[in-house]
Amino acid sequence: MKCLNLFILSLLLIASSHAQKLMGFTDTNATKQIDWEKQFDAQLNAHNLDTWMQFLTSHPHHVGSPQDKANAEYMANLFKQWGYQTEIVSYDVLFPTPLTRSLELLGSNPYKAKLEEATLKEDRTSGQKSEQLPSYNAYSADGDVTAQLIFVNRGTPADYEELDRMGIDVKGKIVIAKYGGSWRGIKPKVAAEHGAVGCIIYSDPADDGYVQGDVYPEGAYRPKDGVQRGSVMDMPVYPGDPLTPGVGATKDAKRLDRSEAVTIMKIPVLPISYEDALPLLQSLHGPVAPSSWRGGLPITYHVGPSTDNVHLKLKFNWDLKPLYNVIAKLSGIEFPDEWIIRGNHHDGWVNGAEDPISGMVAELEEARAIGELVKKGYKLKRTLVYCAWDGEEPSLLGSTEWSEDHQEELRKKAVLYLNTDSNSRGFIGASGSHTLEPFFNEIADAVIDPQTGVSIQERKYASTLVNADKASRTKLIGNKNIKLGALGAGSDWSGFLQHLGIASLNLGFGGEGDGGEYHSIYDSYDHYIRFGDPGFQYGVALSKTAGRVMMRMANADVLPFDVNIFYKTVNDYVTELKTLLDNTRTQTDEENNMIRDSLFDLAKDPTKTYHAPKIKDAVPFLNFSDLENEMMQMKNRTEEFQKQYGDATRLPVEKQNEMNQILYQIERSLINENGLPRRAWYKHEIYAPGYYTGYGVKTLPGIREAIEQRNWKEAQDNIEIVSKTIDQYTLQVQKAMGVMINKS
Ligand SMILES: [Zn+2]
């Protein structure tokens, strides 16, 4: 007996020495939580993801289609079965669909673009012609233009500087640009700013066609007639319904006239395949394109102009169309008014299997499993809000209108917004509010990669290290922490993070399921189960990862935000900006001297036109001292707070609650109600999509973009604005510290 007692005692000792720890949980609660997570994992079933994907992708399900509504109702029913309080929330938004699309090359070698993707017997939904949205760019202008053609590479501002130097002007011309290098809406925006009258965007085979791999149906890549649809709305100004900026697009909302909506593109824009692009590119004369501009077609790429004219004619139906957002809530018991929000969009451009259903089905399975746990006695402290957004593809319509419509409530209640979208085999990708980095890494360490059996954090570390260049590798060795990227644009977080200041996270696996199906009729179930995620193992891994985020956020004793990591990251951004300014100054001086010494003229081929760049204004010194002083305060306060954070789980419950309120509201202090220069809808002073990059994030955007645009006064003004923002943030940290010290 004695021997057995000792044995039990030693077992207990082993158990207690391995007490389980989770950020924001007491040891006892952490142990319980981890136990529930094991049961959660056991609930997840890949077969469900497969079944739901088959239904949700069975017909094209864009905004306004019968399947779009049917999918919303199908998911609403599922959520109800799983115990969620569920509603379908509808809005009426401006969503143009094509009436006329025509593109032809005139002259001696005429060509009429097909603008049609082929039905494939290997792809069962590719023949649903009458239900498919034809290939087009949503929010293009109506137009009927005839002009010469010019090739503008990716169509970014830097490409137009290069055209200038070649002596080529796009004024009055139609431009043709390759997809990639920027968000697609930037291409017609910059083209129109330079006076172009029309814009054609094509998918070059070097990017996602035969240069990358075998084309569909043999392989995953874009076939010759595959077209990338997509929105060209000027979303860096504001996303969502163009007619109702800042408010929900409800039935009785006050609407702008279409002519007043600044986010609608000014010129006609049409996306085409590389089969249709080839004759157009062959018609170009003029200089040979710079080597970095050339693509994978078997021609010599010229910049143009073409001798023959191109005729582009587009007309759209500008009706309002209904949106169907599914909103499903599972109420928390202790803090029903603290919301953990989870979203993925459900609308697709066509059948949309990878984008967005692969993420949507992972969210559904996660919601189902949590519903099962609750039936078995799992108690949620906070409320979970599961959302399936409509209209993400046109311009984040469903999420933006819902977040604008519920802004008062969200400002008070939202603790976190967790987003997913497309998902496929490979490595975890994570971006979001930097306060969430340690919390996310704890989860990445707990989820197992389905192909290798190591944690998804370990696998990400391996790929980061193997793919790092030799110079940066040394710094990365041994550091398995996954650095959260900053969020620009690209999916449904914008309304939450950048408009309302709600801490946000975006997750997804990818990197091994690449192909050329994006926004074409070939993004189908048949394509996805061969190339995206056969067996839905990464769908289940996404459910495990995102489900843990939801459950831990819902049940943490003290919310798992790390304000010191936030400080460190923002401090790196400040350093980056100072370096950017210094480098701009040095480069400007060097280049101006080279111009004065005629070096550009001496270095060029005298038989070709290649102008020297123009003399630029000298770069002044800006005064960063206010910002640096505020950063120093922030450093001290956040270090102090995070040192004590571990003890906060021992605070009396009322104190914990008081502190949690401050912690989840702290992201709101980064909001400046006046918004960013020239785009007041974007109010977050740390993260915004780039005005001239679109998807690409600009951190400290007010300062950074002013420096990039050489607007020195605006840069200095924004340094002062950000200083005040940082001060507001530090005050909140101090307030939280006060709660911690003042224990009684
Ligand atoms: Zn998507």
UniProtKB/TrEMBL annotation:
<feature type="domain" description="Transferrin receptor-like dimerisation">
    <location>
        <begin position="623"/>
        <end position="729"/>
    </location>
</feature>
<feature type="domain" description="Peptidase M28">
    <location>
        <begin position="325"/>
        <end position="527"/>
    </location>
</feature>
<dbReference type="InterPro" id="IPR003137">
    <property type="entry name" value="PA_domain"/>
</dbReference>
<dbReference type="InterPro" id="IPR007484">
    <property type="entry name" value="Peptidase_M28"/>
</dbReference>
<dbReference type="Pfam" id="PF04389">
    <property type="entry name" value="Peptidase_M28"/>
</dbReference>
<comment type="similarity">
    <text>Belongs to the peptidase M28 family. M28B subfamily.</text>
</comment>
<feature type="signal peptide">
    <location>
        <begin position="1"/>
        <end position="19"/>
    </location>
</feature>
<keyword id="KW-0732">Signal</keyword>
<dbReference type="InterPro" id="IPR046450">
    <property type="entry name" value="PA_dom_sf"/>
</dbReference>
<dbReference type="InterPro" id="IPR007365">
    <property type="entry name" value="TFR-like_dimer_dom"/>
</dbReference>
<protein>
    <submittedName>
        <fullName>M28 family peptidase</fullName>
    </submittedName>
</protein>
<dbReference type="InterPro" id="IPR036757">
    <property type="entry name" value="TFR-like_dimer_dom_sf"/>
</dbReference>
<dbReference type="Pfam" id="PF02225">
    <property type="entry name" value="PA"/>
</dbReference>
<dbReference type="Pfam" id="PF04253">
    <property type="entry name" value="TFR_dimer"/>
</dbReference>
<dbReference type="InterPro" id="IPR039373">
    <property type="entry name" value="Peptidase_M28B"/>
</dbReference>
<feature type="domain" description="PA">
    <location>
        <begin position="145"/>
        <end position="229"/>
    </location>
</feature>
